[in-house]
Structures are given as structure tokens and as C-alpha cells.
């Protein structure tokens, strides 16, 4: 069938900035759905009935008119953090026509002379600001889609707290329209508090001289995490994550999460990676919440409870790490049952009892056992000697398809 639904991207320059196809779609439409700001940009010659999105937001007003000539208005490019992506999941491709306008990110990059393919884009529209932290590194250029007029000041404060106070900030208001305005300054001394609600923030990241770099690869320094000693140490953590082998879009269960280090580093490998941190101790739950925000993965979901009971009803994982509780009845068996076919299970043991549990379980289900010994050079009088950390026994097994 020919498209009945047209999604029109519209900029701050309004109807006059639209192409011929977008204008014709709006003139033909019997119903036009959008936000108040977009609807207000239309001239009186557009006769279709105008309808605001419902609150709470729902696509039902569009889907209920299937077959009628309907237009949806969206800001800029509807497929870039926009409603076009949501509609494309609900409406067949041959029923849908999307006519994008330049996105605010494209306009900002053009104003700054930044090659768009080298820019990292982050949205804090109804999302936690802590997600910015995962992208911070000297030389990185970020464009942040703001939630409201208070966003630039909050972003400046976040950068300063994270050790990126010297970063250059540029705020663009009403990009592409008659009221376009640009504000510049450093994060550490940001003074522009009264910005328009419609804005975005461009950040040329620069760390302070004493800010340690945090790689996206596994094995962050132990000092990057707040912990009470219940932490998978750096070298063992890197080896563990290598065996967990995170892939884009996959879900990890971090069982007995402690300070959350494994789940956090899993999610830092790719923006689409997801993790559930299962932890029973209230103090450690607080550490997980702090660490996930400080390291830029606020989407890590904390499950407050003790395995195996807390594992029931959770989404099926692609990988499971058991850092604590392997000797508890039912933990290993429940994890194995819930793991998807082809998924990976990795468990670490420190005590003789937990090591014996892994050995017995391996005898039934297979897998590989690895003994990890790590020693660090430390002072002994006037000299140095090797100080051996507790050895770790690591079980790695892939569930048969």
C-alpha cells in the first residue's frame, strides 16, 4: 500500500524551511499530530486537524488513524533520538514516509566546524546526566541534547566534578531560527544560568592535569571504584571480562555484584550493553549506585536481593558472572538454567570450598578451569619483593545450543 503516515521533520525556521514533499504532505493531511512548539510553526493554510501528543506519551493517536492521511511533526531528523524510530517499529515500511530536516546536531557541528562523524552525541532528554561520564576523555568532542534550560549549568557542574573543568562549552539556543544564540565558556566557571529550554551543549573535552584517564577497555584501576574490599581486582577483572566477552546489545547478570565493577565495565564496552547487578548487602548496593553514575552507566539495573531467590523472573541473560555465593545452594544451577543457549557463564572462587564447588560442577557440565596468580612488587626493608595476592580459580563454560 502507499504510505498513509508521513513524519515531517521541521526546524526552527518553520514551514518556510520545508521541502516541497513535506509541504504537500501537510496540506493533504486530515490530521497532524505533534508537540505544541511544532504545531505552532504551521501557517493557517494547513487545514488538517491539529492534535497534541497525549500525556503520558503514546503512539495510539497515530496508530488509531491507520489508513487515513496523517502527518506527524518532529524536530529536525525524526530518526535521530526522535519519534520516527518509535513509529518505524510499529508501522510497516511501505506505509510510512519519513522526511527529515537537518538535526540540531548537524547544525551545531556546522557552526563549530566539527566533522560530524567524529562527534559523540548524547541525549539527556528524560535521561540521567550521569551517562555523559562514560564518554569523557581529553580530545573527545561531545554534543549533548539538553532536557531544558537548566541542563547546561548541570552539565558544567558534572564536568567539573569529574575533573573536566577546563573543557570548552558552547551552548546553542534555537538553532536554525530567528532567535538563534550562542554562549561560550569553560565548564569550571560557567556563568550562563538563564538559557532557553530549546538548546544543546557542545563540549570540547579537556581533563585537568591531575585527572586520571579511564579507558573503555576492561581493567580500570581499583581506585576508580568506591568499595569495602569486596571488589574483583583490576587484573582478575580484565581476565574475567575477556572471558565474558561482551557483545553489543547483550545482557549480563552480575551475581553477588559487590561494588558493581564487572557489570559497570561490561556496560562501558558498548552503549547498548546491559547489565543487572544482583546484590543483597545494603551498603554495597549504595556503592553500586555511586559507581555506576560516576563511571557513566546509570542504566545498570540494581536487583536488591540474594541469589538464587532474586534471580527468578529476570530477563534471560546472554552472560552471567558469579563473583560471590557459588557455594550457596541453587546459585550455580539456577544461573545455568536461566542462561540462554550459547551464553557464557564465568564464576570466580577464592576459598577452598568455593573452588571445590566449581570443580564438582565442572565435572557435570564441562568448561575450563583457570588458576590466576597475581603478584605485585612491594617494599621489604630497603629492597622490594613480590607480594602474592590470593589465587583465584576461574570457571568458564558456554551453554550448549
TrEMBL record:
InterPro entries: 4pyrrol_Mease, 4pyrrol_Methylase_sf, 4pyrrole_Mease_sub1, CbiE, Cbl_synth_CobL, Cbl_synth_MTase_CbiT, Cobalamin_biosynth_MTase, SAM-dependent_MTases_sf. One of its GO terms (molecular function) is protein methyltransferase activity. Keywords: Cobalamin biosynthesis, Methyltransferase, S-adenosyl-L-methionine, Transferase. It holds the Pfam family TP_methylase. One of its GO terms (biological process) is methylation. CDD domains: AdoMet_MTases, Precorrin-6Y-MT. SUPFAM superfamilies: S-adenosyl-L-methionine-dependent methyltransferases, Tetrapyrrole methylase. Pathway: Cofactor biosynthesis; adenosylcobalamin biosynthesis. The keyword Transferase applies. Residues 5-187 form the Tetrapyrrole methylase domain. PANTHER family: COBALT-PRECORRIN-6B C(15)-METHYLTRANSFERASE (DECARBOXYLATING) (PTHR43182), COBALT-PRECORRIN-7 C(5)-METHYLTRANSFERASE (PTHR43182:SF1). This is Precorrin-6Y C5,15-methyltransferase (Decarboxylating). The lineage of its organism: Bacteria, Pseudomonadati, Pseudomonadota, Gammaproteobacteria, Pseudomonadales.
Amino acid at each position: 500500500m502507499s504510505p498513509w503516515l508521513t513524519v515531517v521533520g521541521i526546524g526552527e525556521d518553520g514551514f518556510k524551511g520545508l521541502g516541497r514533499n513535506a509541504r504537500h504532505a501537510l496540506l493533504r493531511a486530515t490530521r497532524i499530530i505533534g508537540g505544541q512548539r511544532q504545531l505552532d510553526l504551521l501557517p493557517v493554510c494547513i487545514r488538517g486537524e491539529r492534535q497534541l501528543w497525549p500525556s503520558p506519551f503514546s503512539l495510539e493517536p497515530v496508530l488509531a488513524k491507520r489508513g487515513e492521511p496523517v502527518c506527524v511533526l518532529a524536530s529536525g531528523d525524526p530518526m535521530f533520538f526522535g519519534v520516527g524510530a518509535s513509529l518505524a517499529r510499529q508501522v510497516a515500511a511501505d506505509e510510512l514516509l519519513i522526511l527529515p530536516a537537518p538535526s540540531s546536531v548537524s547544525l551545531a557541528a556546522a557552526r563549530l566546524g566539527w566533522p560530524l562523524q567524529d562527534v559523540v552525541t548524547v541525549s539527556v532528554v528524560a535521561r540521567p546526566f550521569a551517562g555523559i561520564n562514560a564518554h569523557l576523555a581529553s580530545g573527545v568532542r561531545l554534543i549533548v541534547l539538553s532536557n531544558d534550560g537548566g541542563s547546561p549549568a548541570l552539565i558544567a557542574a558534572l564536568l567539573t566534578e569529574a575533573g573536566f573543568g577546563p573543557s570548552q562549552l558552547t551552548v546553542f539556543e534555537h538553532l536554525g531560527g530567528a532567535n538563534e544564540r550562542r554562549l561560550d565558556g569553560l565548564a569550571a566557571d560557567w556563568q550562563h544560568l538563564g538559557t532557553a529550554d530549546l538548546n544543546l551543549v557542545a563540549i570540547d573535552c579537556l581533563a585537568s592535569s591531575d585527572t586520571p584517564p579511564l579507558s573503555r577497555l576492561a581493567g580500570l584501576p581499583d581506585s576508580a571504584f568506591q568499595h569495602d574490599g569486596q571488589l574483583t581486582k583490576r587484573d582478575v577483572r580484565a581476565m574475567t571480562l575477556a572471558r565474558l566477552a561482551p557483545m553489543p546489545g547483550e545482557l549480563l547478570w552480575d551475581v553477588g555484584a559487590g561494588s558493581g565493577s564487572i557489570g559497570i565495565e561490561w556496560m562501558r564496552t558498548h552503549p547498548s550493553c546491559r547489565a543487572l547487578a544482583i546484590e543483597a548487602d545494603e551498603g554495597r548496593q549504595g556503592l553500586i549506585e555511586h559507581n555506576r553514575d560516576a563511571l557513566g552507566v546509570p542504566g545498570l539495573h540494581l536487583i536488591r536481593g540474594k541469589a538464587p531467590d532474586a534471580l527468578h523472573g529476570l530477563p534471560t541473560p546472554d552472560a552471567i558472572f558469579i563473583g560471590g555465593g557459588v557455594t550457596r545452594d541453587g546459585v550455580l544451577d539456577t544461573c545455568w538454567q536461566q542462561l540462554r543457549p550459547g551464553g557464557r557463564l564465568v564464576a570466580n572462587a577464592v576459598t577452598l570450598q568455593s573452588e571445590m564447588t566449581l570443580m564438582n560442577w565442572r565435572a557435570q557440565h564441562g568448561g575450563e578451569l583457570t588458576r590466576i596468580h597475581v603478584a605485585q612488587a612491594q617494599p621489604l626493608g630497603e629492597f622490594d619483593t613480590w607480594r602474592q595476592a590470593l589465587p583465584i580459580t576461574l570457571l568458564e563454560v558456554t551453554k550448549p545450543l
